[in-house]
């Protein structure tokens, strides 16, 4: 491609470190799409002839067919997907192929290829997040009133409902979807036509190619166009946050299904056995969702590190963007699919959740609130009184509900029978009617609100 200036071929090591065809072949369809748009524009602008354009288009379709069918022979000597495609095009159509690269550089070529690819990745992720939100909504709906223990510091805190807990993840994945949509909107500008870095002297029409490729318009600065990888970084950042959310849910599923909790069952199809312990059912899929977070976050950090010291404009360092993008996109795709499947198949065990919901004196706040409401005790003092009642229950080895009235009255004589109305977990949950709180009516409303938006 540049033999004119060179007197010897690259050493084998140079070829090995330099070639990207091993991974950037995944850009073949986008590369050909970009070349079709570019050559159509060149012809319309009178820069190449209509005959050349027709030959190029026909040839590119053949190349695409060969790649899709697996008949194409990729060559490492040809470095990357751009030169592999162009070289094969030349074999097929001859001279017109040599005019395709007029007013174009591999720098703006790879920039547009990768942007088309990452745009599709955004759309896939958006769809998958939507499917996961739907699965969570469907699982939450029948459990708006199913009581479970709520934790802070992983210690019993206050009872909540299982539906409310699942809906917390709907909020998280909705924000993730928002980030993806936001980034998708920002990336939709076309860098093709920036040339190597400075634009071109040919009378190209960048608006034409931008429209043909589904972009809102062309990017405005040629230097930025060839040196910017923000769309990949934003995808990796959004994917990292999604992976972190998925990992937290995976972690909860893992301990929910362990015997001491027993809050959920996960069917066999999501678990594996142990080669030694016959009783085991291991939540490998959930563990891998949790574990693969490291790859996605790793990709983000790797690409940020590649980019951070680069002067304008293109440097070959940037070739390192692709493996990070592809790996993170593949990973987020499989973990989103696996999590959606697990959520669909998750079988909650309400009896177990209810049995544990009252543990750890989880309605102590309700007791304190009752003292405030019924006896007009200031909250700080009510907190102290409740603390003493809790120690008394602990000393006797009973729950707050089981503690006799006289025992409470020795701490605060004005306490009366009415206290027992708030000590049960069902009542506790039902009373949390503040906006966003866990009361079953609230949860049902939240589910309905999201149903309309998902
Ligand atoms: N394979 C290269 C990459 O992925 C394509 C761009 C090469 N440009 C250049 N000036 N060598 O970044």
Automatic annotation (TrEMBL):
Any one Gene Ontology molecular-function term assigned to this protein's record: argininosuccinate lyase activity
GO terms under biological process: L-arginine biosynthetic process via ornithine
Domain Argininosuccinate lyase C-terminal positions: 361-429
Superkingdom: Bacteria
A Gene Ontology term for the protein's cellular component: cytosol
PROSITE patterns: FUMARATE_LYASES
UniProt keyword annotations, A-Z: Amino-acid biosynthesis, Arginine biosynthesis, Cytoplasm, Lyase
Main location (coarse class): cytoplasm
Pathway the protein takes part in: Amino-acid biosynthesis; L-arginine biosynthesis; L-arginine from L-ornithine and carbamoyl phosphate: step 3/3
Compartments (UniProt record): Cytoplasm
Domain Fumarate lyase N-terminal: 4-298
Reactions accelerated catalytically: 2-(N(omega)-L-arginino)succinate = fumarate + L-arginine
EC numbers, comma separated: 4.3.2.1
Similarity annotation: Belongs to the lyase 1 family. Argininosuccinate lyase subfamily.
PANTHER family: ARGININOSUCCINATE LYASE
Protein name: Argininosuccinate lyase
Gene name tied to this protein: argH
């Amino acid at each position: 491609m540049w033999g004119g200036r060179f007197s010897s071929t690259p050493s084998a090591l140079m070829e090995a470190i330099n070639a990207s065809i091993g991974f950037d072949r995944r850009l073949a369809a986008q590369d050909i799409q970009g070349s079709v748009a570019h050559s159509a524009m060149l012809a319309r602008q009178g820069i190449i002839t209509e005959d050349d354009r027709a030959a190029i288009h026909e040839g590119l379709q053949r190349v695409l067919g060969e790649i899709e069918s697996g008949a194409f022979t990729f060559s490492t000597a040809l470095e990357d997907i751009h030169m592999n495609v162009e070289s094969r095009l030349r074999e097929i159509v001859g001279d017109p192929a040599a005019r395709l690269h007029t007013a174009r550089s591999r720098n703006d070529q790879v920039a547009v290829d990768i942007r088309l690819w990452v745009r599709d990745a955004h759309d896939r992720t958006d769809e998958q997040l939507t499917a996961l939100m739907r699965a969570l909504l469907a699982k939450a709906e029948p459990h708006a009133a199913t009581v479970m223990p709520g934790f802070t510091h992983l210690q019993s805190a206050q009872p909540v409902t299982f539906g409310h807990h699942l809906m917390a993840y709907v909020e998280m994945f909705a924000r993730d979807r928002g980030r993806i949509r936001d980034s998708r909107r920002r990336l939709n500008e076309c860098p093709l036509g920036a040339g190597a870095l400075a634009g071109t002297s040919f009378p190209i029409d960048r608006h034409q190619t931008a429209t043909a490729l589904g972009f809102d318009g062309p990017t405005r600065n040629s230097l930025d166009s060839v040196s910017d990888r923000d769309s990949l970084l934003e995808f990796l950042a959004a994917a990292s946050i999604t992976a972190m959310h998925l990992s937290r849910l995976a972690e909860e599923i893992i301990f929910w299904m362990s015997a001491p909790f027993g809050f959920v069952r996960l069917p066999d199809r999501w678990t594996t056995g142990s080669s030694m312990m016959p009783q085991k059912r291991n939540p490998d899929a959930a563990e891998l969702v949790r574990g693969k977070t490291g790859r996605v976050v790793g990709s983000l950090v790797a690409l940020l590190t590649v980019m951070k010291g680069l002067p304008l404009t293109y440097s070959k360092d940037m070739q390192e963007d692709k493996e990070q993008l592809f790996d993170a996109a593949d990973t987020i795709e499989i973990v989103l699919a696996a999590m959606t499947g697990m959520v669909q198949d998750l079988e909650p065990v309400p009896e177990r959740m209810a049995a544990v919901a009252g543990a750890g004196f989880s309605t102590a706040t309700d007791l304190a609130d009752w003292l405030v409401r019924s006896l007009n005790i200031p909250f700080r003092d009510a907190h102290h009184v409740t603390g003493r009642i809790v120690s008394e229950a602990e000393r006797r080895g009973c729950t707050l509900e089981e503690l006799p009235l006289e025992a409470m009255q020795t701490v605060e004589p004005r306490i009366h029978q009415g206290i027992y109305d708030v000590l049960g977990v069902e009542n506790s949950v039902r009373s949390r009617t503040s906006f966003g709180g866990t009361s079953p009516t609230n949860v049902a409303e939240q589910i309905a609100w999201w149903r309309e938006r998902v």
